[in-house]
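Table S2 (text version). Query chain:
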Amino acid sequence: MAVLPDPSASQALLIGVHAYEGMEDLPAVERNLTGLRQTLTDHTVWGLPPSHCTTLSQPPTTEAVLDTLGGVGQRATDTLVVYYAGHGLTDPVTDELYLGLPGSDPERTYSAMPYDWVRRAMLNPRVRARRKVMILDCCYSGRALVGGMSAAEVASQVADHALIEGTCLLAASTATRKALSPPGEPYTAFSGELITLLAEGMIGGPPLLDMETVYRHLYITLAAKGRPLPQQRNRNTGGLVALARNRAHISAPPALPAARQPQSTEKPPSVRPEPAQPHPAEQRPAPDTGRPTRVPSSPPKTPAQAPQGKASAVVKEAARDATAASTPLVGPAAAPPSGRRSGRPARVKVTAAAVIGLLAVVGLPVTLTWLWPTTSEGRGDSTGNGADVTAAYDAASKGIVNASKTRGGTLKFVSDMDADSWDPQRSYYGFVWNFARYYTRQLVTYAPEPGVKGTRLEGDLATSTAEISNGNRTYTYHLRSGVTWQDGSPVTSADVKYGIERLWAQDELYGGPSYLQPVLDPDRDYKGPYKDTSKSGLKAIQTPDEQTIVFTLPRPNSDFEQMLAMTAASPVKKEKDTKTQYGRNPFSNGPYKFEAYSPDKSLKLVRNPHWNKSSDPVRAALPEAITVDILSSGSSADVMSRGLMDGSYDLALWRGGLSDAARAQAMKTPTLRKNLDALSTGIIRYAAFPQSVKPMNNVHCRKAVIYAADHAVLQTAFGGPAAGGDIAPNLLPPGFIGADSSYDPYGLLKNGGKPDTTKAKAELKACGKPSGFSTKIAVRGDRPHEVDAATALRESLRKVGITAEIDRIDSAQSPMVSGAPAQVRARGYGIIVTGWSSDFPSLQGFWPPLVDGRLISLSANTNLAEINTTEINKLLDDALSTTRSDQVATISRKINQRVSEGAYHLPLVYEKQLVWRGSRLTNVYRSDAYSGYDFVSLGVTGS
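Corresponding structure-token output:
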């Protein structure tokens, strides 16, 4: 989540050149320095002490700049901010960027200061700041993105530099365009917007203005004025560094915490993976069996903030779709895919010949047809009833494959990416949440059962779920006896409290989900365990004795125990807390402990000799050891595929594990096909209809699109029933509370997924557009399945007179384009194709970011349809006050019905993913709680 640096441990250097001997003067630059200094030192903005904000105006030489920078840099231990405004020059031979000095001559580039020297000075080991921000307001400043902090070679240096956890470079213009100093305006164009934003704040924005939010706002604002567009590159968590409190942020009425970043909503594995999206799907923190979306997105929000969870499918899908996780992004971090649940989706029968014909008509790749099962056995009847089943295609969706209690052997995982962190309080990847249960435990957790039964909460460290009292505000737990750490000492209630308190240390332990913060400490009075000097710690948690822990919520929250079931609520022994290094060797209270870990290479867990099975009813702990091989990028897909299919590995840590070619081979070969499962990811792929774009403000025009869409072809665009998913008749995926896959308000399943052109034309007449209308479809251009779906939808709509232009946008830009209502209106996006999933299988993890009108934000918005109804908002609030699951389910169903009746979305598919299940695996089943295999129940045969 966003971090406001400690002003007492931070430094800023503001460099400006406004008068030149051989170039045009820039009088506005002098005012830039004054305005920016006043803003940064304002205690209501950042509060940087004046002595920590150095202004260097008209530096005579390069030495003067570098010497000053060296001195300032050595005094910063938290964050170093360096700003330059003036003329930018380019070397005619190398195209490198040079920063103008008072005596610089454009004909003598060497008379200016090489930007690369400034960059090197910031990366000097003597500069101890953990986070570094460079802001350039000069012509051609975008060249710094090529030769500066984000270049591949330099990015590697930054990532490997032990003291640099986050680096951000913000440039005023592209590599080929001049910056602008408008006549008559007090500041230059870029700096003026920056100063205004920091000084006045951003209405509808988050409490803190992090660098990603700043960049998105500046991009939109400057674009609207036709001015040069800024550029940005981040390394690690550089985009999460905040330089100001949002002075326009207004606390909203209590609301349900939102899910992962945004707009996409998914998460990396399980993107919880699509490594994302947050935040809609993709995240995001989401698709697969794990969750790398995210690219972690922002923390859960109150109505005035943006959602966190799967919200951005950018986070989740990003993790899942690509190797983008290792590539600097221009926008918000990608989130890991996220969602995780599923149940028994309805099926639609379509012949292969018909599909191929339809594909040919709309121009979709016929190669997708190999993903389709050819018999009813391959339809993936995801009952998850817990029965023992024989190893066969999609068997793990139906029950437990190879049930066994035999201990022994080594369980071998393979992955093409490492964890975002193995620290339970810092991870937002879904596969880490699943895997971390090998060495962490929580007060409550999900039942080790297949399918929807696996979403039932039961006691883990605690003897049972909570004793709830005081108007659903007080939760009391009693710890089991015999629960110990890996050194044999007992796990106490104080350890549980301390682990949760670490979530407040966001200045150091950022990255993980923060649902518990607004629920336990909405006013953020607690400063975290590293800064709090009191003996009481977080007052909302009391530990009357070593076996008892009591939570007192300021306001009721029906999903509080769902939040405690997340690995972020795991205990941590204070004496073993190594802060930012804890993820390298977490101290175990589970059945396994770390034996060896080499980041980005390998991980090995061995048995914890002090773990007591009698104290742990959840974890089977069958293997003797567990290994993870982390492959380098490049040929990792082929290496992983070969390793899985030849038995060198048992399963992929996240995603399906097989390349497209390997999946095709496996689907065609009976002896291999039996090792594939078509697992529901918990992600809903859908299209939203922004009501601010005409004629989508008319419900009948929206219904016309739903009826005109050919859902069978759209399903094929996503990969067919096996690799794409089941046709979605409504927005709520199976496995979530209140879900009903038979609820088919538009007759999509009844009609076999075919378009109903008669009803579509009737709706067009009702909305006053009998001949149809024109609109635009926004789609993330780097998501092939989404592009295919947009193409298929366009062809379907054309048949009833609706013409649609497809606009492809970059995933990294989606939060500031399709996720920015102003941009949506300006560009005329009447349809936005995306996806969404949740961090946990309950109401608050899914609905608020999509339908709560109080969560609509200026950027990174996930309520893409811009729904804001009194009835739906009240239903969301009503869900907070009850702890009865039947009442929450009823509310969730009502929301689903109201959303469907309003025709705010076009549901596409409940996503599935083909996953390789190794032949040695035992006790294999899909859990709705983890949108994939339940890792802690797995065993292996052989060594």
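Notes on Table S2: Confidence is low (pLDDT under 50) at residues 147-165, 251-383. Residues 885-901 form the longest helix (17 residues).
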